[in-house]
Design a protein that fits this description.
83 residues; alpha+beta; three-stranded antiparallel sheet; 1 helix
Length: 83
């Protein structure tokens, strides 16, 4: 999951976040115009980071679901555990 990245950005593309499917923020890019207004920057960060986390969580869940559906070999004597 550390190699799967989700990129999210604000609607006006002034703030960009890259996050892994393990919810680790890998990069943040902030346009200089956002540095002029602290409150606006804070709002942007909250909005974009939350959207990125939401998408990363969905990707993580989909990957786990896909792995859990893979056919695994049966271990002799343990067949009853999987019924």
């Amino acid at each position: 999951m550390d190699t799967i990245f989700i990129d999210e950005q604000s609607a006006d593309q002034l703030l960009k976040i890259s996050i892994s499917a393990n919810n680790q923020i890998k990069s943040v890019t902030i346009d200089d115009t956002l540095l002029e207004d602290k409150e606006q920057l804070e709002d942007y960060l909250i909005l974009v980071i939350n959207k990125a986390i939401e998408k990363a969580t969905a990707v993580h869940a989909a990957e786990i679901d896909a792995v859990s559906k893979m056919d695994l070999p049966m271990i002799p004597g343990m067949e009853d555990m999987f019924k």
